[in-house]
Amino acid sequence: MIKTTTLIGVSSAILAILMAAIISFGGFGEGVDTANYVRIFAQIHNQTSIWDLRYEPLFVVFVKTFSSRYSSPEFVFLMITVPAILSKVLAVRAVNGNGLVFLFLYMSLWAPTMELNQIRVALATGLFLYVISAHRLNIFVALVLATLTLGFHYSMIGYILTLWVVLLWRNNMFLAQKFLLAFAILTLAYLGFTIVGENLLDRIKIRESIVITQSIRVFGLFSVFTIISTSFVLLYQLRIGINNVPLAVQVVTISAVGGILVFLYQSMHGGLFAYRTLETMTSLLPFSLAWVWRSADRSEWRIAILVLIGIGIAIAPNYWSSRII
Predict the structure, then answer these.
(1) ∠ CA(254), CA(92), CA(282), 5° rounding?
(2) What's the angle, vertex CA 307, arms to CA 306 and CA 309, rounded to 5?
(3) Does the predicted model carry a pTM greater than 0.90?
(4) How many Cα atoms are found within 13 Å in the side-chain-facing hemisphere of 276?
(5) CA 86 and chain centroid, separation
(6) How distant, in Å, are the alpha carbons of 10, 64, 134, 149, 191 from that of 187?
(7) Which of 58, 160, 237, 303 is least enclosed by beta carbons within 10 angstroms?
(8) For 245, phi and psi rounded to 5 degrees?
(9) Which one, of 218, 249, 216, 217, lies nearest residue 234 by Cα?
(10) pLDDT tens digits, 122-160
């Protein structure tokens, strides 16, 4: 007899691949950057060196490895979206979470930004999540591999710094080791934000003309949804004790908290990419909720998650059609 958890795991993997295919072949329409990525694919295959382009080197290597100059754009999108979504589902299974809960939440509100639009971030976050969830990996190896996801998209600096901070807090280390790790975190933060800052001004000039068309109502609902969901996950973790929470769940939850704080700060100061920060840093929040579903010992927690799923699905139609940045 097939176990329920195995059946859910297999169903989640099949559904993830199916959703990736539908997105890749235009079943949900085009993202804002779809045409831009078609041009990027062509540029990548016309260059002989991975350093000739401004795009992240590991992303360039990935595209060159799994496609050719003759591959259709839909095929290239598929080669990116399948591992992007599937790696997240496998990570959910690694921490004994519920894959279907994850997919319902993730596909309703975050996939429009990630897999449909920001595919480099989608792939990077998927690989990052799987690496830090894999129980068989040595913690040092996991840390190195997770840090390498910066080579797929520079915005991973937020998740990577969070991982380093959590590891610094969780592990019993000598004072000198903690000092060296803290120094490495600060150095990486400086380099990361310097890189982002150098490219931000030009992007702001390009986007200024379209930002005024943002659907404030839709994005407002999303921001409230993420704040409520993050608070819910934090409350549950505090209830059972932080030491009983898997590393990956802690990293994802703290990243969401950080994203919300940065979003609020940017919003108060007129930050142009406030919602982009919020979407990126909370994009793995469904992972934490999927873990809460499986680990909760009271039905009230699951009922609350069902309510969140219902809200997400209700918002989804407008959200999929309101991709501006």
Answers:
(1) 35
(2) 65
(3) no
(4) 15
(5) 13
(6) 42, 31, 27, 17, 6
(7) 303
(8) -100, 130
(9) 249
(10) 999 999 999 999 877 788 888 889 999 999 998 899 899
